[in-house]
Structure formats: structure tokens, C-alpha cells
Amino acid sequence: MSLFKKTAAKIEEAVKAAAQAEEAKEKETCDMLHVIDHPLIQHKLTIMRDKDTGAKDFRELLVEISRLLGYEVTRSLPLRDVEIETPLTRMTGKAIAGKTLAIVPILRAGLGMVDGLLSLVPTAKVGHIGLYRDHETHKPVEYYCKLPDDIQSRFIIVTDPMLATGGSAADAVRMLKDKGCADIRLMCLVAAPEGVKAFHEEHPDVPVFTAALDERLNENAYIVPGLGDAGDRIFGTY
Ligand code: PRP
Ligand code: URA
Q1: Gap from CA of 152 to ligand 1 centroid (Å)
Q2: Catalytic residue flag (residue 137)
Q3: 60-107 pLDDT, tens per residue?
Q4: Is 229 annotated in the active site?
Q5: pLDDT (tens digit, 9 = 90+) per residue, 204-217?
Q6: Does the beta carbon of 230 sit less than 6 angstroms from any atom of ligand 2?
Q7: CA nearest to 188, candidates 78, 45, 90
Q8: Which of 28, 46, 106, 145 allows an S-S link to 160, with CB 3.0 to 4.6 Å?
Q9: Is the pLDDT reported for residue 59 higher than 80?
């Protein structure tokens, strides 16, 4: 084989390997993104997106969707056998084993997803991380953090309805990891592709559960079509 052909073959091999690596990375990212598009969720989310939906309905729908999403987010909770006696016979049933749960909303909007999860797991502890997005830079600014003492030994669900640039969620998860937490998942309502990508670049080990993956971010880093400012719509501060 001529030197030219050998070089061309090597380049082709390297390009193929790079494409395969990219494909594997994309698949890994897809495996960590769960779009929970159950018809009930889609129906409720459409009402939430409507600009004419007021704060009361918006809040109530967010609680309902959070409960439905919570069903999927908690699917991987480990189980243990328990011996019980029914009115008819003895049997081995199942109970949640091991780690207990912590819900960590990112303030403010993440608060709107807490009650839905608490209705599923009433004994969960709730930590709070306060972050707001600077209007100019779109970068998150931390202003509060209060977590359960044993947070690092818990199964953690971070909640925030909006994953836009991904900055707030990535910072919140970094704060939890800095405290030794390892078993973390992120539950949101609407995500932008840019946000999912940025979040998984920093936290490839954290699964993201969302009700919708929207088209894109606009020039103000708002999700399109989105639903506007989630915090303002929950608390009526527009
Ligand atoms: C919103 C939202 C997320 C963040 C998403 O919060 O609830 O926390 O923006 O944007 P990002 O992915 O680009 O970081 P906001 O800063 O408006 O605060 P609020 O919840 O108090 O309204
Ligand atoms: N925060 C929101 O509340 N909505 C967006 O679309 C982006 C960030």
C-alpha cells in the first residue's frame, strides 16, 4: 500500500473512532434523560403552558404533575422482603429498603414540586437550596442552603420546574456532591436541549426526569415554547 493510501486509511479509522465515541456519549446521555410524556402529564402541562392559566391552577397542576413524575423518579428505589400475615395466610411482601429520601427544591420554583412528592413519600425530609438567575449574565447566584444533617446517606430528588441553561441545576447538584451526596436525580417539568447537554457535561451520573424536552432557548435564555417564568407563575409575582 502506498504511503498516501496508508495515511488516508489511518485518517478514516480515526474519524470512525471519533464518530463512535460521540455516538456512545450521546447514547449514555440519552440513557440519563427520561422524558415522562404520559397523556395525563401532557394534558396538564398544556394547560400550564397557556398564558391565560392563573397562579392557582398553575400551582395545583404542578403538584399533580409532580406526583405523576415522582412515580417514575422513585421507580429505582430498592425493595426488601417483609414477612406479613394477611387475613388468609402468611406471605412475603415488599417494602422500601435502605436509603430514605430527601427532596431538595431549588428556590423558588422548585418548591412547587415538593407537595406532589411528599404525597407519595410523606416521611421524606426536605432540604432547600436558594439560587436565582442573574438577569444580565443568566448565571445562578446562591443565597441559601439548608439541608438535612444526614443528606449524604439519602436518595435525593432535586426539584426545579425549569432546566434552561442548566446552570442552576448543575450548581445545586455540585453543592450536594460537595457535601458527599452521591445518589441524586433531577426532576423538572420543562427542559431545553441546551440545558440537558450542559447539565450532563458536568454531572453525567445524575439522571434527569422531565415532562417535556422543548425546542430551544431564546436570546434571554428562556425556554421556547416553555411556559414563561415558573417562579412568577407559581407565586403570582408577575
Ligand atoms: C428559574 C428556574 C430555575 C432557573 C433555570 O429560577 O426556576 O431555577 O431559572 O434557569 P437555568 O437553567 O438557566 O439556570 P429563577 O432564577 O428565575 O428564580 P425563581 O425560581 O426564584 O423565580
Ligand atoms: N426560568 C424560567 O422560569 N423559565 C425559563 O424559561 C427559563 C428560566
Answers
A1: 24
A2: yes
A3: 999 999 999 999 999 999 899 999 999 999 999 999 987 789 999 999
A4: yes
A5: 999 999 999 999 99
A6: yes
A7: 45
A8: 106
A9: yes
Mean pLDDT lowest for which of 27-36, 93-102, 136-145, 198-207?
A: 27-36
Choosing from 137, 150, 174, 216, which is the catalytic residue? 137
Q: Are 102 and 155 in contact (CB under 8 A)?
A: yes
Distance from Cα 79 to the centre of ligand 2, integer Å: 36
Ligand 1, CB cutoff 6 Å, lining residues: 106-109, 132-133, 138, 140, 160-169, 195, 221, 229-231
- CA pair distance 212, 214, nearest whole angstrom: 6
Ligand 1 nearest atom to the CA of residue 232, by list position: 22
Which of 205, 195, 169, 207 is CA-nearest to residue 72?
A: 207
- Which residues, 6 or more positions from 133, have their beta carbon under 8 angstroms from its beta carbon? 139, 140, 141, 164, 167, 168, 221
- In a mutational test of the pocket of ligand 2, which residue from 45, 108, 194, 227 has the highest number of ligand atoms less than 8 Å from its CB? 227
Which set of grid coordinates corresponds to residue 233?
A: 407563575
> 59, 108, 133, 233: which is the annotated catalytic residue?
133
* Ligand 1 centroid from CA 19, angstroms: 34
- Residue 132, C-alpha cell as written in the block: 436565582
pTM metric for this prediction = 0.88
C-alpha to C-alpha distance for 140 and 214, rounded to whole angstroms = 21
DSSP symbol at 151: G
Put residue 86 in one of left, alpha, beta given phi > 0 → left and psi -120 to 50 → alpha.
beta
Q: What angle do CA 134, 140, 141 make, to 5 degrees?
A: 80
